[in-house]
C-alpha cells in the first residue's frame, strides 16, 4: 500500500531529521570550500612571491656585481681586467664564464671555470644578441635560459655595457655565463606542504627551473590559466594555481606556485565526508525510529481493523482477548481498544438476543401458519364432506356393532331353552 502509514511515517521521520541537517551541511560545505580555496590560493600566492623575491635578490645581486665590475674595468690594462674579473665573488661558482669584449665585439678577456686553456681568444661577439643589444641599448641584456652543451645544466648569458663617460657610448660589454642551477637550489630550499609545487617558466612557458631537474632537461612547457584559481596543473590534473612575474631586461620569468586540488581542499572534502556520514547515520536512526513509531501506530490499527472485520463478518469470530495487549496501553490506542472491546461484547450480546428473539418469532410465526393452514383445511367444503362421511361411517359402525350384539345374545339363549 503506497499511502500506508508504515511507509509514510519513516519517510516523514527521515525528512524531518535529514532536511535541516542537509541544509546545515550544505552551508557548512560551501563555507568550508570557499574558505579552503581562498586559503590555498593565498598560500600559493605567498609561495610564488617568496620565490620571486629570492629570485630577484639573487639575479639583482649578480647584476649589481657585474655593474660594479664594469665601472672598475674602465681604464685598466688587460692583465688588471683579468685579475679583477677572476676575483669576483660569484666566479667561478655562479659565473662559469666571464668575457670582456670591446666595442667591435672582439674578446679582450676570457675566463672559464671549465677550460684551463683559452681556445676562444679569437672569438668575436659582434653578431651575438647578448653583445649587440647590450651595446646598442646601453643597458643589461638577459638571454633565454638554455641547456649548456658542455655541462648539461641550464645557463643564461647576462651582458652589461661599459659606458664611456665622455660620449655615453658603450666602449665594451662584460658578458657573464651564469649557471642557473643555484635557482634550482633556491626552489628546492622552499618549504612546501603536501601536494604543493613551485617552478619557473620563461615568457614562452618553457620550464627553466623545477624541483625535478628532469622536467627542465626534457624542455617541457606549461601554459598557465588566464587567471589565478583552479586550473590545469603541471604536477596534477587539477590544481589551485597562482604566479608572480619578474622581468630582467628583455626576459620575463614566471614563478608558478600550485597545489593539488585534493590536498588544497582536503579539510573541505573531509567536511563533506563527515557531513555525508552524519546524514547517513541520521537517515538510519530516523528510519529505525520511524519504523518503530510506525509499528506502535500500525500494529494497534491493524489489530483493531481485524477485530472490526471479524465483528462485521461473523460476531463469533470476534475475540476481545486479542485486544488485551493494546488495551493495556495508556495512550489513545489503549482507550480505543478498551472501547472496542466493550462495543464488541455489546454487539455480540445484542446479536445473540436478537437471534433468540428472531427464533422465538419464527416459532410463533410457524404456529400461526400451522393454525391458519389447519383452519383453511377444516373450513373447506371437502373437509366438511369428509367429516359428514366420517360421521355416517361411525354411525353405521355403531349400528352394525349393535346388531351383532343382539344376534349373539339370541344365540346364547337358544341352548338354555332346550
Question: Which characteristics define this entry?
Answer:
418 residues; Beta-Lactamase
Commentary on this structure:
It is a single chain. The chain is of the alpha+beta class and 418 residues long. The protein has helices at 5-73, 78-86, 129-137, 181-188, 213-217, 261-264, 266-313, 324-327, 332-378, 381-417, and strands at residues 95-102, 107-112, 141-142, 146-147, 154-163, 170-179, 196-201, 207-210, 229-232, 238-248, 251-260. The longest helix is centred in the N-terminal third of the chain and has 69 residues, at 5-73. The chain has a domain at 60-179: Beta-Lactamase, CATH 3.30.450. Helix content is 57%, strand content 17%.
Named CATH architecture of one domain: 2-Layer Sandwich
Please estimate the helix content: 55-70%
Termini Cα gap: 116 Å
CATH H-level superfamily title of one domain: PAS domain
Radius of gyration from CA coordinates: 61 Å
* Beta-strand content: 15-25%
Query: What is the CATH class of one domain?
Result: Alpha Beta
Please give the number of β-strands: 11
Multimeric state of these chains? single chain
Gist of the model:
The protein is an alpha+beta fold and 418 residues long. The chain has helices spanning 5-73, 78-86, 129-137, 181-188, 213-217, 261-264, 266-313, 324-327, 332-378, 381-417, and strands spanning 95-102, 107-112, 141-142, 146-147, 154-163, 170-179, 196-201, 207-210, 229-232, 238-248, 251-260.
Q: How is the secondary structure organized here?
A:
Layout: H1 5-73, H2 78-86, E1 95-102, E2 107-112, H3 129-137, E3 141-142, E4 146-147, E5 154-163, E6 170-179, H4 181-188, E7 196-201, E8 207-210, H5 213-217, E9 229-232, E10 238-248, E11 251-260, H6 261-264, H7 266-313, H8 324-327, H9 332-378, H10 381-417
Antiparallel strand pairs: 1-2, 1-6, 3-5, 4-5, 5-6, 7-8, 7-11, 9-10, 10-11
Helix pairs in contact: 1-7, 7-9
Amino acid at each position: 500500500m503506497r499511502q500506508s502509514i508504515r511507509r509514510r511515517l519513516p519517510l516523514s521521520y527521515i525528512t524531518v531529521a535529514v532536511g535541516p541537517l542537509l541544509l546545515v551541511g550544505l552551508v557548512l560545505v560551501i563555507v568550508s570550500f570557499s574558505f579552503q580555496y581562498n586559503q590555498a590560493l593565498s598560500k600559493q600566492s605567498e609561495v610564488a612571491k617568496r620565490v620571486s623575491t629570492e629570485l630577484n635578490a639573487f639575479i639583482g645581486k649578480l647584476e649589481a656585481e657585474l655593474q660594479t665590475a664594469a665601472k672598475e674595468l674602465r681604464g685598466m690594462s688587460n692583465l688588471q681586467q683579468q685579475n679583477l674579473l677572476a676575483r669576483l665573488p660569484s666566479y667561478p661558482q655562479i659565473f662559469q664564464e666571464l668575457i670582456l669584449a670591446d666595442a667591435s665585439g672582439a674578446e679582450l678577456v676570457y675566463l672559464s671555470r671549465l677550460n684551463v686553456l683559452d681556445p676562444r681568444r679569437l672569438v668575436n661577439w659582434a653578431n651575438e644578441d647578448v653583445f649587440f643589444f647590450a651595446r646598442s641599448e646601453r643597458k643589461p641584456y638577459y638571454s633565454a635560459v638554455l641547456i649548456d652543451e658542455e655541462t648539461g645544466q641550464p645557463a643564461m648569458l647576462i651582458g652589461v655595457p661599459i659606458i664611456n663617460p665622455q660620449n655615453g657610448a658603450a666602449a665594451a660589454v662584460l658578458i657573464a655565463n651564469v649557471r642557473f642551477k643555484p635557482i634550482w637550489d633556491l626552489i628546492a630550499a622552499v618549504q612546501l606542504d603536501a601536494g604543493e609545487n613551485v617552478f619557473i617558466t620563461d615568457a614562452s612557458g618553457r620550464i627553466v627551473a623545477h624541483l625535478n631537474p628532469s622536467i627542465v632537461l626534457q624542455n617541457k612547457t606549461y601554459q598557465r590559466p588566464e587567471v589565478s584559481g583552479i586550473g590545469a596543473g603541471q604536477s596534477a590534473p587539477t590544481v589551485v594555481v597562482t604566479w608572480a612575474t619578474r622581468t630582467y631586461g628583455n626576459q620575463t620569468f614566471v614563478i608558478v606556485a600550485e597545489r593539488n586540488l585534493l590536498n588544497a581542499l582536503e579539510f573541505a572534502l573531509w567536511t563533506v565526508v563527515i557531513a555525508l556520514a552524519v546524514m547517513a547515520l541520521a537517515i538510519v536512526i530516523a528510519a529505525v525510529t520511524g519504523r518503530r513509531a510506525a509499528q506502535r501506530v500500525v500494529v494497534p490499527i491493524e489489530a483493531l481493523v481485524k477485530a472490526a472485520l471479524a465483528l462485521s463478518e461473523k460476531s463469533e469470530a470476534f475475540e476481545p482477548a486479542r485486544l488485551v495487549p493494546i488495551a493495556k496501553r495508556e495512550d489513545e490506542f489503549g482507550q480505543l481498544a478498551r472501547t472496542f472491546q466493550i462495543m464488541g461484547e455489546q454487539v455480540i450480546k445484542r446479536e445473540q438476543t436478537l437471534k433468540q428473539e428472531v427464533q422465538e418469532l419464527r416459532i410463533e410465526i410457524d404456529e400461526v401458519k400451522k393454525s391458519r393452514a389447519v383452519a383453511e383445511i377444516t373450513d373447506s367444503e371437502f373437509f366438511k364432506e369428509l367429516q359428514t362421511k366420517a360421521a355416517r361411517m361411525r354411525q353405521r359402525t355403531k349400528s352394525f356393532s349393535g346388531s351383532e350384539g343382539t344376534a349373539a345374545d339370541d344365540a346364547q339363549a337358544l341352548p338354555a331353552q332346550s
